Task: structure prediction
Amino acid sequence: MSRRSHMRVVFLLLAIVLAGYLAVSYFLVPELWLFHDDRRKVPLNPMVTSTAQGIAGDPINVGLVGSREQVIRAFSAAGWDAADKVTLRSSVDIGLSVVLDRPDLDAPVSPLFYEGRKQDLAFEKPVGHSADQRNHVRFWQTARPAEGDRPLWLGSASFDRGVGVSHDTGQITHHIGPDLDAERDLIIGDLDKAGQVASTYEIPGIGATKAGRNGGGDPYFTDGKVLVGVLGPAPGRSAEAAK
Result:
């Protein structure tokens, strides 16, 4: 067999293995897993997001009060980047970022669903040189306004500690760090340091949880509270100075 023919056989075998992995991890296993562990589908806590399959995802743990423009401007001022939508191109870019240890400041985040729809906004702040580790948060604008008829955004914040495979399906995913409260506090703290938060308050969330498990099978713990930041100039700080 010639070297060229040998290489063709190798590439063909690799293609077959890759196709088999994709078929098993992204189509067969999710269906078998849902059938086996259907009890995790219902009922969902109203303060918990869900995956596209209806499995409980990350809990709601952070909130913001302000317009869409204020939210985007606040994260920009705090040094966070808006996340890309998940496309073939963005998925390839984040893969190369991890493998080659190079930056991907607007790497996509996977979709989670709250109140029947996927996130409206998502932001991230990388840790290190690549998208392997990052602070990130998804936000949904709720149908209920906050005091003063300003929009209320509820979000799910977690720390991506590294890329791996899902404990449940074998799909490639980010694994989250277990301390969700630390990530929640980091986000509000960053926005506050940037002069974007006028005040904060707490609302009930999922409730104290020591052995939570998200849609990828990652464990987490939380005090179960949602920390809400009201966007605007901090007390004693003029609007012009906060820009």
Notes: The longest strand covers residues 152-165. Residues 45-231 form one domain. The chain has four helices and 14 strands. The longest helix spans residues 3-36.
